[in-house]
């Protein structure tokens, strides 16, 4: 359960009262998530999500996230919309943390995605990339190549306690990407964390996208690589080509990839596996005492990385050209 910051009942009620969303009836810590503290709010007017932003979210980035959700929602994407308080502000502070209330989205995330789900995600990812056009703000991806070495250094030799030889394996990967990371690809707003837990479905139809707190300005194909990693592998770390095909076809039904993106896909998949291996590794080694959180397994991404190391070209992910 990801609740790092507890909020006293009277403090919570006074906070919610400023938003004109009706009297607070109940506030429950949410069991999912690892990054921020999330509460489900029931008020006399409806259901909302309260987020208290924790360690990895920098306060100066919050205006970007809030404006982005509003921009995407205004363009028809079903994502949370920030609720404004009586002064018109979406961002505030609660229990010593930056905080915001956003609208609640209906739908369920899938634990075992099918090829149909993968196709839906591919299509929605491309729609998100298109909807981001014209967004006036930029945010550098803090978790792209320059951010990886500091994470590896933070883990240090303790990485080998998680898996023998991991520290050396990780450093070799970082050096490879520092030398030859794909440049000049089509870029814009990317979600950068569109894992199954951040996508809602009603039946087989994708109904909404949440958790824009890693969103940034980066290569669209890198976002696709993140999704191939998080949606198209089986529990035994084998890549499911049918799911890969479905995701890529779904994406290209909206936004066809250019040749440079096709050629870059293996490096982007390999790099994005490393990125999640690194953040998971650091989190695994640094669970805050008393925090109600279950850290994700870093070795899941070590196994995915091993697959990418054997890949020849984008056809190995299911691209049919
Ligand atoms: N706008 C929303 N509508 C419905 N449920 C939400 C919304 N935002 C978050 N949640 C719920 O809270 C959980 C954690 O949210 P998430 O943003 O993924 O947390 P974190 O960024 O801390 O990992 C989600 O899995 C979902 O169940
Ligand atoms: N998706 C990341 C962790 C971030 O968690 P989220 O709940 O904010 O999506 C991972 O799986 O490592």
Question: How is the topology of this model organized?
Answer:
Blueprint (H helix, E strand, L loop, with lengths): L8 H9 L6 E6 L7 E7 L3 E6 L9 H13 L17 E3 L2 E7 L11 H17 L13 H11 L3 H4 L3 H15 L6 E4 L8 E4 L2 E5 L6 E4 H12 L9 H12 L6 H27 L12 H13 L11
Antiparallel strand pairs: 1-2, 2-3, 3-5, 4-5, 6-9, 7-8
The site of ligand LJ64HWYM has 12 residues, from α9.
Textual characterization of the structure:
41% of the residues lie in helices and 14% in strands. It has 321 residues and is α+β, with helices and mostly antiparallel strands. It folds into two domains: 9-103, Phosphorylase Kinase, domain 1 (2-Layer Sandwich); 115-317, Aminoglycoside phosphotransferase (APH), C-terminal lobe (Aminoglycoside 3'-phosphotransferase, Chain: A, domain 2, Alpha-Beta Complex). The strands form three sheets. Strands 1-2-3-5-4 form a five-stranded antiparallel β-sheet, covered by helices on one side. A hairpin with a 2-residue loop joins strand 7 and strand 8. Helix 3 packs antiparallel against helix 7 (220-231) and helix 3 (115-131) packs parallel to helix 8. It is globular. It starts with 8 loop residues before the first helix and ends in an 11-residue tail after the last helix. The protein binds adenosine-5'-diphosphate and the ligand N[C@@H](CCOP(=O)(O)O)C(=O)O. Adenosine-5'-diphosphate is lined by residues 2, 30, 32-36, 38, 49, 80, 102, 104-105, 197-198, 210-211, 213. The site of the ligand N[C@@H](CCOP(=O)(O)O)C(=O)O has 12 residues, from helix 9.
């Amino acid at each position: 359960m990801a609740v790092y910051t507890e909020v006293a009942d009277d403090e919570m009620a006074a906070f919610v009262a400023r938003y004109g969303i009706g009297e607070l009836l109940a506030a429950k810590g949410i069991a999912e998530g690892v990054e921020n503290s999330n509460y489900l709010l029931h008020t006399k007017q409806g259901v909302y999500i309260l987020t208290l932003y924790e360690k990895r979210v920098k306060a100066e980035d919050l205006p970007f996230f809030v404006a982005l959700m509003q921009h995407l929602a205004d363009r028809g994407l079903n994502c949370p919309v920030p609720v404004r308080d009586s002064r018109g502000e979406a961002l505030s502070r609660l229990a010593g943390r930056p905080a915001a209330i956003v609208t609640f989205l209906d739908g369920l995330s899938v634990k075992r995605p099918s090829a149909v789900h993968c196709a839906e995600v591919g299509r929605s990812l491309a729609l998100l990339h298109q909807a981001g056009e014209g967004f006036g703000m930029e945010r550098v991806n803090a978790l792209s190549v320059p951010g990886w070495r500091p994470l590896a250094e933070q883990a240090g030799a303790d990485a080998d306690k998680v898996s023998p030889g991991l520290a050396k394996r990780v450093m070799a990967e970082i050096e490879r990407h520092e030398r030859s990371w794909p440049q000049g690809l089509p870029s814009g707003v990317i979600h950068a964390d569109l894992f199954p837990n951040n996508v809602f479905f009603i039946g087989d139809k994708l109904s909404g996208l949440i958790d824009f707190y890693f969103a940034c300005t980066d290569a669209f194909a890198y976002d696709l690589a993140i999704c191939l990693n998080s949606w198209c592998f089986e529990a035994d770390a084998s890549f499911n080509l049918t799911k890969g095909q479905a995701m890529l076809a779904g994406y290209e039904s909206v936004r066809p990839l250019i040749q440079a993106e096709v050629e870059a896909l293996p490096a982007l998949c390999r790099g994005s596996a490393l990125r999640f291996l690194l953040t998971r590794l650091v989190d695994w080694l640094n669970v805050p005492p008393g925090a109600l959180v279950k850290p994700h397994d870093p070795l899941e991404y070590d196994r995915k990385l091993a697959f990418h190391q054997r890949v020849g070209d984008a056809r190995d992910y299911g691209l049919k050209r």
